[in-house]
Amino acid sequence: MGCVAAGTARNRSGDPVRGDPIGTKWMIMRTSLCRGYGLLLILTGWRAMAEEPADLIVVGGRIATMDSEKPEASAVAIRAGRIVRVGTDDEVLHAAGPATRRIDLKGRRAVPGFIEGHGHFLSFGESRMMLDLSTARTWREIEGAVERAARGAAPGQWIVGRGWHQGKWIEAPAEHTDGYPVHTRLSGLTPKNPVLLTHGTGHMVFANARAMELAGVSTDSVNPAGGEILRTADGEPTGVFRENAMGPIHRAHERALRGRSDAERETDTIRAMELAQEACFEQGVTSFQDAGSSFAEIDAMRRMIDGDRLRIRLWVMLNEGNDALAARLGGCRCVGYGGERLTVRAIKRMSDGALGTHGAWLLEPYDDMPSSVGNIVTPIETIERTAAIAIEHECQLCVHAIGDRANREVLDLFERAASRSGSGPPPRWRVEHAQHVHPDDIPRFAKLGVIASMQAVHATSDGPFVVRRLGMRRAREGAYAWRALLDAGAVIVNGTDVPVERVDPLASFAASVTRRMANGEAFFPEQAMTRGQALRSYTLDAAYAAFEESIKGSIAPGKLADLVILSQDILTIPDDALPAVRVDCTIVGGRVVFERAESGPARDGRADP
Questions:
Q1: pLDDT tens digits, residue range 589-602?
Q2: Interior CA angle at 491 toward 494 and 390, to 5°?
Q3: Shared-domain flag, residues 109 and 68
Q4: Which end of the chain offers a freer environment for a tag, N or C, measured as fewer CB atoms within 10 Å?
């Protein structure tokens, strides 16, 4: 089964846009036939709609619209899933009719729906169905959690978990190699059950002796290209596998799952997506930019949308091999499918690993591991071919690059693609993460029109070990350098990389403006964003990075009615008060999809249709 195209590539507005040197040639929009209200509504139809009574009005608050023509308002009117009026309470109340529902903000702050700029939607849902190891502060805690799970498991059943991170433990494991755990004790606790524990970054796994046996891993196993089997001093595998070395463990686990029926697989997929959607709505995320899904996973998304089980708006990067992309991308590319709930017009590639696992590709060796400069996960020549496929199909290319060497190599690749096209860089190609960039390469993002898709919460989460990895000079000059990138004219998209971090835009917003770590110290605070910049990175700039700024990212007539109501005003309260802010209400397409019970009734008591 394959994806089915739902739209045709077109110019969005006919005018060049910020950060796009090519202008109209490369800009993409949707035809009105496959976009429902789409562009026709935005340009003409919404005015006629505004004359009809609104389905919903939101009044009595402080609304940050992110619309330069009217940046602040107190009320919004919504009809048929679109915004039809923005203004004062008196202006908007005129749009009410006998059947109009009303939400009283009672002075609260409302903002455009948050756009998760980089996450893993299905993996997030699946992570909520396994052991959560993210809060463990020691390896001993993890051993205890796995042992308890094994007691309740049948012999041979896999114990699966995610979230461990040695860089965040308060003490090293009793038996370790370079701070990473050795499997011996945990294997003794779980002799009958294979164990697979994914690192918090997703770039490393831990396996016990039984899992390694099933995977065929032994003392004689060799490191694959772009991966590493960590070993003890006497050459024995520790149970920790970095980057491409994870493959045999994952394949052994996949073999164990082959006995499931198609119905069981579909049930698990549906459950995972529903769990992910539920958590997103609780945190005010109305759109989710998925950083890598397969053809099969996109098919599952389409089925859920067709059954009205997915209301969140998904923008998806395809993560398939080059041969598969060349053969099937044309039939999978779609824009605005299911009432603006699914767009597939981007491709994901990985150039290196993660800083937390010593896998990020660096120009100079790690300070705390001088023998290593990290991992090249995908050969550059492979990504070069992907770039050609992206150009052919008018897709964005989104490349994971964390280390300064990886960022330079990817920017060089993008520049070569521009020279081959003869008309400038392809529009809005993206570097995913851009966590450590050499100062010489920071201006190149704006020069090439490359989006810096960064996750602010990574800086405050990773901060405690970054200086150990990079040293003070490199960390200060180029680690999580939001301010330097913004000052150079780059566009930054925010996010959480969930399930690497919690899908919490408010936590990432706070990290953006305070850069305050858990210990209270600020991680190079000179690189902080302003509050306006941080909010824009989660709304209008995130929409821009997906060619969706004409339909979302701000609260303006004609746009999708996606809004979030907050318990406090994140634009004015003191920094110390930011961690206490909560999402009170989430609205997608004019429909209330989440309401916090303790916030009090936001609606007039009438049920959603």
A1: 999 999 998 765 44
A2: 90
A3: yes
A4: C
